[in-house]
Amino acid sequence: MASLRSFCFADDDLKSMFVGTVMRKIKSRTWKKQRYFRLQEDCMTIWYKSKKAGNTHSTFSVGDVEAVREGHQSEVLLSIADEFPPDRCFTLVFRGRRGNLDLVAESAGEAQSWIKGIRKLIDNLENMGQREKLDQWICDWFKKADKNRDGQMNFKEVQDLLKMMNVDMNEHHALRLFTTADKSQSGTLEDDEFVLFYKMLTQREDVLRVFQEYSGDGQKLTLQDLKDFLREEQLREDGVQQYALKLIERYEPSDTARMLQVMTFDGFLMYLTSPEGSIFNPTMVELYQDMTQPLCHYFISSSHNTYLLEDQIRGHSSVEGYIRALKRGCRCVEVDCWDGPNEEPIVYHGHTFTSKIFFKDVVTVLGNYAFKASQYPVILSIENHCSVEQQKVMAQHLTQILGDKLLKTPLHGKFPIGLPSPEDLKGKILLKGKKIGGLEDSMNGVVDDSLMGEVSDEEETAEFNDDHHRNDSIRHRVKKSKQSLSKELSDCVVYCKSVHFSSFKHSQIHSKFYEISSFTESKARKHIREAGAEFVLHNARQLSRVYPSGLRTDSSNFNPQDMWNAGCQIVALNFQTAGVEMDLNDGLFCQNGHCGYVLKPAFMRNIDERFDPENPQNGGYKPLSLSIQVISGQQLPKVNIKEGSIIDPLVRVEIHGVPLDQAKQETRYIDNNGFNPVWYDTLQFTIHVPELALVRFVVEDYDKTSKNDFVGQFTLPFTCIQPGYRHIHLLSKDGTSIPPSSLFVHVRITKLT
Questions:
Q1: Is 224 annotated as a binding residue?
Q2: DSSP secondary structure letter of residue 636
Q3: Which of 297, 349, 538, 729 is catalytic?
Q4: Known binder of ligand: residue 38?
Q5: What are the pLDDT digits (tens) for 712-750?
Q6: 703 assigned to a ligand binding site
Q7: Do residues 594 and 585 make contact, with C-beta atoms less than 8 angstroms apart?
Q8: What b/e readout covers 629-659, taking b as 16+ CB neighbours within 10 angstroms?
Q9: Which top-level group of life is the source organism from (predicted)?
Q10: Does the annotation count 304 as an active-site position?
């Protein structure tokens, strides 16, 4: 920590942040209040309070800040652009679903100091090694415990700290630890003494057991010991010696041990808590799949009602929804377009009280953010309710704002024989919508040059009404209508022409590869039940989109796994709504470089195969056995802020896949220990279609009288699991990391004979 502090005190921008600055916090055109901001001495926490008298203040951690945007780069700051110049304005964007913090400094110089300073701190955090991160956590706990801010910790403060850390320890044991750590016998713990106390508290007996099993003398692992461990437990087969040497070089903190090519317990623990010791195979975190297959051969990360930040009745529409989705690697976003004032199309959830935003602002954000997280193509799914005149304006905005990014003609100017690949379409934005005639007609110049064509309005509005027809309490009826389409907007659609779905037989005979049908979740489920294998084949030839029922007015989500099982590529979810469905989406797309495209299994791409998700055993697949020993948990977060409340954790492992593979099992719950619970419980599963399975680890606080509270989770594809002793780094409900919370497990995958 000393190195971080010395860096902070030597940097001019950070020095001025320590002194503090008065800035305006902006929430709207009418809510602009002065606040005093300053960086605290830990170089990690930003403290702010009202200029008025009173002691109330707020803080946030630099670790929670994802990015700093300069100038008028949020809706709030754009709304006051006429009042404050861009060089004084900036926005702090937080991780997860937390709202932005919009600030206006008194001068451009002060704004720059904060913009540059926070960016330096974020970079510094991201470049921290494992040991520095551990030191940071220790420092954070010391700060929380040192209530009277005297830089020392008495025994009462230690007891309070143990409760904060989710530890239920009797007073006698706590006093023994305290006395052992208090080397100076002063009755308080100072810096180094607290570090010792923390390390005694976090002693990993579970990892020590594994270490001693392979260590000849109980003190170190020789190179041979480490190789034995890697072969026998981690099932490492190739280049074991080279890999063992790399681990010693990378994780062993002792210079002497490194020189002797041995690993101490500290180094072993550092390796097991690192990305290489994680359950997620690091080679699959990177881009590793073939990206040259046709677009319909990939699952595509897709958002529904992207413009909404809340529910679908009174929710807030915002371009921020697009920024958040795109930065999470989403590759298909939706716009619901309606006629707006002054011939400017607007985006909102029609016939509801959701707020409205301009279509041109959405297109501008798309141009700016489409390729920040991934270079692979973005599909803009248009739900078009506009008049022909405003459709022309839409086409104009798309063409002028996106320029070359908008794909308006087939690649290489030739008529294609199939869908291009994500690799072919890098850096391109594709429009999904209605089109007059076919791709052949527009390439041959056959389309009538008259101003408009007629297409049937078969999109979500029609499906929404189907849902309502099934709901007797709603008598509202809207007829499916013919809608006029402008040639200009039609010309922007190339590879994603929206068409009505009749039947799989009809599609097989008549469908074109560039046509795409949308299904409401209930229709998709019906097709999967009645004709699963046909649906899989349909999706091997062309794209399908599935979206939530119109009755989900709370923006809840359906289970996407059912749709992926049938090979549906564009499974549109409400990204703004946290829960198991978004955990599964994040779990599937956290592989392959977070690029938003995941290659479907070979048996779903081959039109000569017949895979039925409802009866996979007919395909002759060889099942696998998955055995997970849940060993322990580390520093699980508190879920109940009630004084003295400590969690009773249990771990549930869920398998999401084809119906035959759906399963869940739980460990026992451990009384009053969220700090270092130990289970050693083994859970067994049989996986018939591993290529489609996702494994979700959930930690809950057991409650015998009511529903268990969520503590943390981690979801990953079965195919990305590393066997052996592994740590699982837990995520919050929002999908953000909650270090140092983790689970320690032992995983074995074997073939069933």
A1: no
A2: P
A3: 349
A4: yes
A5: 999 999 999 999 999 999 999 989 888 889 999 999 999
A6: yes
A7: no
A8: bbbbbbbbebbeeeeeebbbbbbbbbbbbbe
A9: Eukaryota
A10: yes
